[in-house]
Every structure is written in structure tokens, then in C-alpha cells.
Amino acid sequence: MTMLTRYCFRLRSLFVCSLVGLFATGCLEPYAPPAIENTVDLFVVDGFLNQTDASISVRLSHAVALDDGGKPPVEAQAVVQLEEKDGNTILLYGDGTGNYTAAGLSINPEHQYRLHIRTMLGKEYYSDYVDVNPTPDIDSVTWRPSASSITLYTNTHDDSGKSRYYLWRYTETFQYRSPYEPGYRMTGGKPDYIAEVDRVGTCWTTKNSTSILVGSSERLSSDVIRDFPLTVIAAGGDKLSVRYSILVEQRTLSKDAYTFWTELQKTTESLGGLFDPLPSQVVGNVHSNDLSEPVLGYFSAGQQKSERLFISFYELPDYLQIYPRVTCQIDSIPLNRLQQYGEGTYFISPYGVPSTIGYTISSSFCMDCRVKGGVTKKPDFWK
Amino acid sequence: MNKLYRLLLCCFFLMSLGIAAQAQRRALINGEFKATSFKDFVDAVEAQTDYHFYYNPKTTDSLKVTYSAQNQNINVVLGQALAGTQLHFAVDEQGNIFVTEGRDIMSDLPVDFFDTGVAPSNNTLVSGFDYTAYEKREKQKKLAESKLYAIGPKSSNLQGNATMAGHVRDITNGEPLVGATVYIDKPLVGVITDQFGYYSISLPKGRHELKIKSIGMKSTVRQIMLYADGKLEIELDQDVTPLKEVVVESDKDVRVMGMQMGMEKLDIKTMKNMPLALGETDIMKVVLSLPGVQTVGEGTVGLNVRGGATNQNLILFNDAVVYNPSHLFGFFSTFNPDVLKNVELYKSGITADYGGRLSSVLDVTSREGNLKKFSGSGGISPITGRLTLEGPLIKEKTSFLLGARSTYSDWILRQLNTERLKNSTASFYDVNLNISHKINDKNNLYLSGYISHDKFKLNTDTSYAYSDKNASIKWKHIFNNKLYGVLTGGFSRYGYTMTSDLNPVQAFDMDFYVQQLNAKMDFSYFLNAKHTINAGLSVVRYNLAPGNIQPKGDSSVQKTIRLQHEQGQENAVYIGDNFEVSPKLSIYGGVRYSFYQYLGPRDVYQYANGVPRSEANITDSVRYGGGKSIASFSGAEPRFSIRYSLSQNASVKVSYNRMRQYIQMLSNTTAITPTDIWKLSDPYIRPQVGDQISLGFYKNTRKHSLEISLEAYYKTTKNALDFKGGAVLLLNKHIETDVVDSRGKAYGVEFMLKRSTGKLNGWFSYTYSRSFLQTVSPYAAEAVNKGDYYPSNYDKPHAVNFVGNYKFSRRFNFSLNMTYSTGRPITLPLAKYELGGSYRLYYSDRNQFRIPDYFRTDISINIEGNHKIRKLAHSSWTFAIYNLTGRANAYSVFFRSEQGKVQGYKLSIFAQPIPTVTYNFKF
Fold first, then answer.
1. How is B575-644 classified by DSSP, letter by letter?
2. HEC profile for B168-187?
3. With a threshold of 0.95, does the pTM exceed it?
4. Chain B residue with minimal CA distance to A267?
5. Which chain A residues have a beta carbon less than 8 Å from that of B831?
6. Structural domains of chain B, count
7. Which of A353, B133, B398, B556 has an alpha carbon 20 to 30 Å from B123's alpha carbon atom?
8. A-B contacts at Cβ under 8 angstroms
9. Which tens digit of pLDDT belongs to each residue from A93-133?
């Protein structure tokens, strides 16, 4: 036993390194790959025919080199058509930024549809014909607290047992406040009280999901998805500081589409563990006339169901009701130095009793919530 | 004072009583000797009495005995006869008389030890000396070395050859010595003992000095007079000071003179000197320091031998197949160092008695229990504790060896502050039991059982457990000096279970197992000095449960899925002949013929012709009844090697072998995982076939102290499995739709410089090797890298290893271990694109890039306790530092899209120096 205690110290460092290196991210270092010359132009198609709102949206873009800092270039001048098998062809409207849409479609769920794309350079692409997949309603979106965060889950089921493969996307919107809401703004050379509509102390930020969320009840005896984890939100951040909302969208996938998204998820989101599969090229259901040209992306069709959930700060368990920690310094600006500040500068409030002798000010990060990327306009669905 | 006097008196009385008692049982001696030669004197005495003399003719040839005896006691007669000479004599209870020069000897020495069955006397009354056991053995050794052993009934016909055979054993515990060399110098004829310590050598009749050498043992000689076929049992003493002279005298000659090429043999002593991570001698890691053996990353257990896949190694533990030799994800091998004897790795020139895997044979042998006394050993390292007990069940006949090892890593994990690890558990144990029983001189029985078990849960809801169990029974029967046979029965089972219960709706239990029963008969026939013939047959019956999953708990809606069990039978016959054409030229030729059947009951899917096999192309399902053959494969596996000696110190060898493999592991991850499944060859997955040709040059210099070897090989593989992108291997009812056929080729050159004697010993090796795979598919969509050859995951062209030991003294030993290799190939992303709300990656063709090169240095110091032979327990300490330079070697490089951005990461496992301390003891 003395042996054990004597080497306990060593054991600890040993285990932290080896086990953490294995299972956590302890011994991870950033890695920049060798410069790779990529001469292949890869065309990317991301399309969905939405039966629920009778619309279609397709985004066309190109892949870029890994170290390219810019946005991937879009394919803005293509002719995109939706073709119904043995039926109509509908031309999509391009907005000039790579998005092509059409609305008010009459979609026959019994029929199959495909995409037909002709680029400006004359290259032609077809997707496979896909079925229009009915989607069951989302039963509920729930959340549960853990030690320092909350996890959001979605639930659904299909009594017919035909859905089986699901894809989820979500949009998060959260309300947050700047630490010191400014009450005054430099207008015409002097601080002026800000009207309610122009206030910048409360913002809303909206973010789309970035991970691929796919799930299946393939191996279950009934077509039930219970507690599929969508996202984990740490307490003490802006997201849960006032009120949080999530809009979950659910689609049923064909087995092929499910395989595609699962593979894509495996190769780009969960590689690198000791026992993770080797990366591979993931091929979708869009093909070029030139058979040797790989095309990335997928086109699918079906219903899309959605569900919204709100969580406000006071619903959190007491131990998770943590305000965001920021260090903000407040300065006092005497009236005679106000002219140094330009038009539009925010001030928190006047000071001096009975007569104002100056205004308090902080950094714009601490006063203007928009600096963090939010907007002050309250979303329509916010109740 | 008075007391002491009485005690002495008492002793004296007892002593004289003892002598008196002896004398009474022996006839008294009469005779007139006048300048009689000592030999004639001895003959006369032996004729009159049942005394038996042992003496060295050399020391007595000048002695003339002149004495007249009338009914006199032997002690008186000899006392007179030898008076005035340097000769001493001693008489023991059995009537043996030992005549020695110089120092007196104890007459109670078990010199008749070589006459098996006679228990040595424990009477110490005659002894005036306090001999230690060691000195006793030294005396015995000298006696045995000077004695002339007559082999076969005396005859005057000394024409032609005769065969002598027997066992070479360790004198301290009766354990057989494997790979000991038994030879004579003139003419140079030699053999090597087999796995039972058995040797059989054909020599010209007449007088010879037979030399015996073995690793870590004292070399000895036997004077023999070979009249006819006969038996000679030989016991060797352990080299008590192995630190001074660790090595491998026998192997020095083997590398040049032996038939085998591409073989490395390591005994446990060599392995224990190497510095290793986590303070545990690990044979799998030691094997990795040999040329031609690679791994995809440290901390993984899979071996890639000469460009072969990890499932292409036949790992045998006492003749039973081991499917997963790893504990704790590969940080440890499942072989307990305390029970091991040695490890042999065959990379090429594999003889016909082995079959079933393509790349290599890793033959791990455990020790046999001590036949003479109870003893034990054990050790404590940062991760494990182990204890081994052994001893005789019936003295000199039956022994046992029981070894157990377990970890306290669960305890360590609980001490950690990290929340992530606190909820994790990881534990393992392994147990070995060996029983060997000598039925009589011609029959031996060996039983071996082994269990390893692992359990872990890594802060997830899923817990895993896996276990390897095997058992073997071996019966060796010696028909005569020239022929012996071994009948082996074995059982192996590897299985794992997964349990998940976090989400009650999806809670499940899943399990998998592969199991085999095998029986084989092997015969060795020493036809004459030029031919040794081995032949045998073997039957292996496989049974696999490829996967079962069932709901756990009442609220679980998990579907019960039971994949159909798989059955197969692999039969083989083989024959091989070692033919020594001339002292310069030896040839081994052999052939193995294997016949395999994939058996029902089973429903087999049928697929449409002319299109890739996929779920959508299933046309029908055909039912095969129990025991019905669904598919069968067979083929000859020729093996040959040639050795030609250029001189006494140099030789060239050539070998060719073909291997067939009927069971393969399905894995599309870089490292072996505990949850990889095995699959039998079936109508769609054909057996793998491998061919290898190799050429080697061997030279020993400086009186064999430096061995140089250079080997080159070229290897091809057919029907290796590769997987389609995103293949699902677990619980897949039609795995054939997810695999593609591929072929492989590998070639390389291995250079090794080894010094096995002296204060500084060790080896240096450099390997250049390449390994490629190519998809064989008529469908372009299935072809990896457009159907071109691409580097395999373990293609590491340059590898340099240095293993060195320096012995400062008998108690301090310093070891240095350095490893360099090219980074393994990886697939890197070429481009990124937006899809599904985030950047995704487009990967290059498979394995077109490499992770950074690997380099590591380890050191260790062994400190032995003092070398007093007699004490309660012998202990030793090992201090080691793994990865001394703290280089963060890349285990893997990967990319992830996080928060809509692509991040590259390099993962290292042992990114800093890791010190360990191990305490070992032996009693």
C-alpha cells in the first residue's frame, strides 16, 4: 500500500496525459495541413422540395481550397428546373446569390421529382428522382438540466412505421441585454434621450444549426425517436441570460439520404477518435453528364414539420441562473469634455444632483448589444 | 561449554552410527592387488559387491593400487588404496562411490539424478561442508561433464550411425528448454530442441563430446560413447548472473546455420530489459521493435508484419488461437510477462505445420511450472499488480503454474478530478493456468487455460466488456527415438458485449462472439542424419455469432435482431522434410493442403448479376440446412526454403511460402477496436491467399559476437477485404454489400545488426518497406482511388530501431530504446464547401498524405537486489522513462467542422515523458 501512495503522484500525471489524450481533447494541438494544390472544381448542390409550404429552394456553390479565407463562390447564373417524373417542369427563380427558389407549387406526393441544372458554362447536372416523404409531427421539444448546462431534445413517432429516418435542423433565437443600457446618444452635439424604438440595450440573435442531426429508429420495434439530443447550452452565457427560443424543423429522409447525411456527418464531424472510421468521399445523388466529375450535395423532397420552444432565465434551476460575467468600466465625462465625443456616441446616464455635471460612459461592447451581432428588432414570433 | 561438548559428541555418535549402518548393508571386500590399475581395481570391487564407482579415467590412469584386503570395509580399503594421492572418495547410501581429485565431495549429491526415478538422498550426516544449492549444482555439472555416458547396449560394432534422443531441461525447475542446441563439433552435426525440449540427433557411432547450449543457461558438454540408439536426458543450470552474460549463445549459430529465415525469437529475459510505457513488460510492444513489424500508432495492439493487415497474424498462446491480445484499448497485451517463456515471430519461411493466417505466426509459449519446488513471483507497476505461483503437484512428475494479473485503474480513475473521467471505468484481468504431467518417459500431458477480460465505460451511456478465453490440451507420445507425435486439442472464444441504458427507450444489450474448436496431430520423424520429416493433420471448427441485439428493460422498444450464426470447418494435412543435402546445403520442402467449407444452417441472399451487390439487388434467399456445405474452398500451400553456407560464418537463404486464410476481421477504422467483428469466408467473401518470396544473407563476425542479417521480401495478397465508404459493419445482415475485394502487394528490405554478448548488447535495425492495396471491382463506383494501387494504412517506408542494454555491474542494467519511422499515410481534405449549414470537407484519394514522422526514445534502469542465493525473496526495481524527449508524436491528424469552421487537429497520446516504477519479486 505504501507503494501505491508513493507513486500516486506519478500515476496521476500519467493517467491524465494518456487517458485525456485518448478520450478528451487534452493532448490535441492545432494542425495545419501541408499546402495542397487543388485544381478540381467541385460543384455543390443543396436542394429541398418542401411539400409543407409548397416551395423549393436550391443553393448552388463551389468548393474552395481549405485555407481559402473567403466565402465559397456561388453559381449565380444557372438555369435550374424542377422536373416531375412524367409531368411538368418548373423553372426556379435565381436571386443572383446562388439561391434558386419557387413557391406556390402544386406538389403531388405520389410522384417523383428531380433537379435539372444547366450552368452558365453549359455543364448539365441531374439529380436522381426522389420521393416526396411524408413527415410525422414533432411530439415535443424538451430540455433537461445537467451540472453546468442544459440539453435540448426532440421527440417524434410515426404510428405507420414508415418514416424511420429523420433529419433535424434548428434555428436558435435568444434575447440578451448589454450590461449597461445607454439612455442617451450624442445628437446634434449634445446627449439626447433615446426613444424606445432606438434603444440598443436589448438584442436578439438568430443562429442556424451547423451540425448534421440525423437519427433513425431502424433498429427499434416501433418508429419512435425519444430524446434525440439537439444541442447543449452552457449556463452563464448570453443564450440563457434572458430568454431563449429554438425552432426545430424535422424531415423524414429516404434511406439513401439518411446514409448520405450520416456519412457526411461521420467524415466531417466525428473523425479523429481512436476508433472512428476512416474518412471517405461522400457521394450524393446529383450527377454530372461528365461521369468522371464528382458532384457534392443532395436533393430531397418531403414534408417539413416544426416546433418551437421557449426557455426563460427564471425557468432554469437556481444553480444554473448565472448571469454572464463581463468586466465593464464606467467613466464619468464632465460636461466640458463632451465635445470630444462624436455624433451618435452612447452615454449611459447623466450624473450630478440637482444639476447634471456630466454623463457616464462605458465601452460600446458594454453598452450596445448589437456589437455582439444581435439586432434590436424583436422577432415577430417573440411573445 | 559442557553443552557444546555434548552436542558435538552427539553428532559424532550419529555420524558413526550412519557409517556403521551403511557398512553393514554392503559386502566386505577380499582381494590381493599388486600394482593393479585403478580400473582393474574398480572392476574387481564392483564384481564382488554392488558398489558402483564414479571416477574420471584421466585422473586415475596413472594410479596403481597395491593392497591386500581380507573382509575389509570399503572405507578402509579405499582409504588405504588412495593414501598418498590427491584423490578423495565418498560413499553414498545407494552404494555409489565417487572418486575425485582435490577437494572432497559430499556423497549425498544426487548424482544419480540422471538415472531418472531415483530420488536424491537427503542424508547430510556424511557431509562436513555446508554446500549451497548452487555449489551442489556446480559439482553435479562437473561430474556430469566428466562422466562417460554409454548410449545403447555395449557392442563392438561401431559402424554406421545411431540416434540418440532425450530432453534438455532446466535443472532448477525441470522445465524443458526450447531451442537449445545439441551438437558435436567433428563432424559438425547439430539439432535444436523442440517445444518440449526434445531433441533427436543422429551421429556416427563411437565416442563424442556432445555440446549443449541454451539461452540464459550455462553451456555444458557430455562425454558419450554411442553404441546404438539410446536416450540421454540432459539438465542445464541457469546462468545465475544473467546480467553479465545475458544471451543467446545458441541463437548465434541458429541465425547463420539454421534453416529458418525471417524468424525472431525473444526470451522473456531479453524482453524484461526493454524500457516500456506503463511499467509493464509487454511482448507485443517488444515485437514492434523488430524489423518488419509496424503498427498504425502507439497504444494500439495490432501488428502489421511485412505489410500485412492486423488480422493476418496467427497469434498462438500455447497452441490456442488468441483473437484479441489487448487490454485497455491496446495499451497492454493480454500476456502476463511472469508466465511467459518466449515468443517466436515468423515473418517468412513459415513451415507447413502452421496455417490459417497470411502474414505471420506469433507463437507465444508459457513456462511450465517448477517440477521441484514451490515458488512464486509477482510485481507492482503503476497500473497493474500480478502474482504467479508454481510448483510440483507430484514431485518430478506433475507441476502447475498459475498466474493472475489485474489492474487498479478503476481506483485511479476515481481519484481524477476531471468530471469526464470520473464517471469512466476501465478494468481488466487475466488468468493463466498450466499443468504439465509426465505420465512416463514416453508420454507427457500438458494442459493450458487462459482467460482475459476487459470492461470499460467512458463517460458515455454505453459500457463494453470483452473477453478472450482459451484452453488447450496436448499429449506428447514418443514412439521411439526417431518418431514422436503430439495430439493437441484446443478451444478459443472471443466475445464482447455492449450495454446501453441511458435512454430507456433505446436501452439495449448487444453481443458478439467467435469460437473455434480445433484438433491436430503432428508427427516428427527423424529419418536419419539428413532428413527430418514433419507431418500432421488439423481440423478447425468455427462458430460465430455475428451479432445479437435485444431490448434492455421494460420501456425499451429496441428490436431484437439476431444475425444468423456462421459455421465453418477448416481441414488441413501437411508434410514437410528438412533435408541436409550436405553440410553446406540444406533444403526444407513442405506442402499444406487446406480444405474449407462454409456450412449451414443459413439463409443466403442471392444478388442480381452484372450490377454491384447492394440491398436493392437482392433477388432471392436460399435456405441451406444444418451441416450443408454452402461454399467450399481448397488449395495447396507450398512452402520451401534453402540454406547455403558460404562459410562457417555466413550463409544465404531463400524461401517461399503460400498461405490461405478463411476467417477475417472486419474493421474500417485505423486501429483495431474491441468491437471489431470476425467473418468467415462465404460464397461472396473468398478466402485470402498470400504468397511471399524472400531472400536473406546472414553473417556472424568476431567469434559470433556480432550478427548481421539482410533480408528482402516480395509479397502478394489476393481477396483482401476493403470497405465501401460509410460501410456499416455492426449488425449488418448482408455484409457482402459493404465490402469490396482488393489485392495487395508489399516489398521491403530489412537490415539488422545484433550483438548478443558482452556488456553492451542489443540490436540496430533499418527497414525499408512498402505496402499497397488495390480494389478489384468491375464497377467503377466501388473502386477506391479509381482502382489504382494506393498505400495501405500501415505503409511506413523507413523504420529505424535501436535497442541497447549496457550492464554497469551485475546489479545495474541500463537500457536505451530508440524508434523512428515515417508517418503513416492518411487521407487529407482537399477542399471545403458549404452544405447543411456548415463547411464540409472534400477528401483526397485515400492515403495520399502522411502524418508527421514518428520518433521516440525510452530509457530504463533495472536494479537487481543483492545476489545472495539464499534469501526470502529476490526483488528488483525498474525505473523507466517512456518518450524521454517528450516529442508529441502524432497519433492521428483530423479535421472537424466546428461552429461552421474547419479546424485541423493533431492528436498525440504520450506527448510528454512518462516515468514509471515497477517492483518485481520472486520467491
1. EEEEEE-SSSEEEEEEEEEEEEEEE-SEEEEEE-TTS---GGGEEEEEEE-TT-EEEEEEEEEEEEEEEE
2. EEECCCCCECCCCEEEECCC
3. no
4. B841
5. 38, 40, 42, 63-66
6. 3
7. B398
8. 249
9. 999 999 999 999 999 999 999 999 999 888 999 999 999 99
